[in-house]
# Entry
Amino acid sequence: MARIIVITSGKGGVGKTTTSAALSMGLAQRGKRTVVIDFDVGLRNLDLIMGCERRVVYDFVNVINKEANLNQALIRDKRCDHLYVLPASQTRDKDALTKEGVERVLNELTQNHDFIICDSPAGIEHGATMAMYFADDAIVVTNPEVSSVRDSDRMLGILSSRSRRAENSEEPIREYLLLTRYDPYRVLSGEMLSVDDVQEILSLNLLGVIPESKAVLSASNAGVPVILDRESDAGRAYNDMVSRYLGEDVPHRFLNPEKKGFLSRLFRG
Amino acid sequence: MGLLDYFISSRSKGTANVAKERLQILVAHDRAARDRPSYLPQLQEEILAVIRKYVDVDLSSVSVNYEQEDSHEVLELNIILPDTLQNQA
# Structure
């Protein structure tokens, strides 16, 4: 039985796909059989971030409509044997994701995988609700910014009412907060909500804080999940996140500005 | 001195505390609305219609409150009857 994780946020552009790519790669590198599914039908992008866009033949909707089987549609990652990508369809509309179809595909995937990562589209429309409906865990990706925090709170409400677990009165979805694009300098100067501020408002289990980093754009330019960039702060923060998700007790890093500037040089000298 | 000024001025200039306050109010409001059953507005209207058969009250004098606690839910109905009723009695 696989654990199903939805990466959600409500607001767009906060880092859902970046996080889906990083989490799936991180889990696979730790030997977990992982598949990452793009639920953004019509606007597929996960394949680009994963660097497998030229290998897409069949997609999620083809499998749902039984035009292809799973083995034909799953793309095996070239860097990591345990990782598969199921791309979204670029041409059809989001209603192609039927609840029965999604359930059937997930049930099939759950047979021989440990983790299924569902990369949700932005918004609260059909694609987003399908991505979260069957989830066991939810990672709510949030920027330290008012509209993102508000939308995240709205998603929490939807997670607790419109999911399979909620409808069957099972144990609720485990919800985690991932704060991304965090700029410790701006937090220090009082320009940006701090991790404590966001925690106080959303009161979620904090899975990680990913600092604002140039490495994220470089990684997406190259089609390499940023978690593979072990030199970068974002890559290391994502690695910590994966360890934390798997139950390791890893302290949070990158919450304070690096002491590399004029001041520290002055004091060291 | 100059450096200290920089930090003090930038702290007071910061808008993060404004963001936090606004969010706290907004989120509390959103959550209160979210937890209410969807039939509440209609319930309020129909109760009002029944009361109006006997007493002349307006919408603002009927309030329906819904609260959820750990083990139970409270549906509170508050009707303010007009003063004239007391005089008649």
